[in-house]
Write a structure and sequence with these properties.
Elements lengths: L2 H8 L3 H10 L6 H5 L6 H13 L3 E3 L8 E3 L1 H37 L13
Antiparallel strand pairs: 1-2
Length: 121
Amino acid sequence: MTTLDQSFAALADPTRRALIARLAEGEATVQDLARPFSISQPAISRHLKVLEDAGLIETRIEGTARPRRLKPEAVAELWDFLGQYRALWDVQFQRLDAVLDGLAAHEQGTPEKPKGGHDGE
């Protein structure tokens, strides 16, 4: 399984997505992360292990504390991947908007003005 596959598999769980959202605000210990959930601390630790194995978070050792934090480079890899598809979908949505605008103009009985071209003025 590639790192990207592991990342998306890890993010398939809503609890892990909530943990990532919390860690986007800054470092936190397991106790801090477990507080808003109605699941046990060991369950939170298992979720964190999945996120760490996927390379999305890392553990920093500070005495007896083990705060977790996001790995920015892993999140950047996800954004890069998704960004490719966002650009593709933006083009598709622009085309759909043009079709819908044309249909709306036709239903109102007004001629459609060409977009981005000269309209004879």
